Amino acid sequence: MKVRELKKDVKVLFSHVIGDGLLLADIKNDEKVTAEMDKMLLDAIGKRDNFITRINHPELREKGESIKQYYNKIRKEVTDYFNNFYEMLAKYIEETTEAK
């Protein structure tokens, strides 16, 4: 995978995360959920910026780490972040659904 494609994927995936978080907050229309979504979305924006910076600056890699290993590590971190984010969204959906 090319670096340009990785950056594009990160930007697209984070736009989906942000959109889904905003949609959930809007649908639930609950102050508690909205406050939690605000925190999660601010964290997501920070993570996006961090990933883009790291992608743009491979010189930040650890000593002895190859470029390929560096980018593979970033890909894994991005994937793990998205899995965790959507698991948290699923919990909010389940909690509010069970409350009814």
Task: Kindly summarize this structure in a few lines.
It is built from three helices and no strands. The protein has helices spanning 3-28, 31-56, 67-99.
Structure characterization notes:
The chain is mostly helical and 100 residues long. It has one domain. The protein is built from 3 helices and no strands. It starts with a helix and ends with a helix. The model has no long low-confidence stretch (mean pLDDT 88).
**How far is the N terminus from the C terminus?**
45 Å
Low-confidence stretches: none
Integer count of domains: 1
Summarize the main sheet: none
As a whole number of angstroms, the C-alpha radius of gyration is 16 Å
* H and E order: HHH
Strand portion, in percent? under 5%
Look at the helices and sheets and give the structural class: mainly alpha
Mean pLDDT: 88
What is the 3D shape?
A: elongated
Counting DSSP H or I runs of 4 or more residues, the number of helices is 3
Q: What percentage of residues falls in helices of 4 or more residues?
A: over 70%
Number of strands: 0
Describe the structure using short key phrases.
mainly alpha; 100 residues; 0% strand
Topology:
Blueprint: H1 3-28, H2 31-56, H3 67-99
Helix pairs in contact: 1-2, 1-3, 2-3
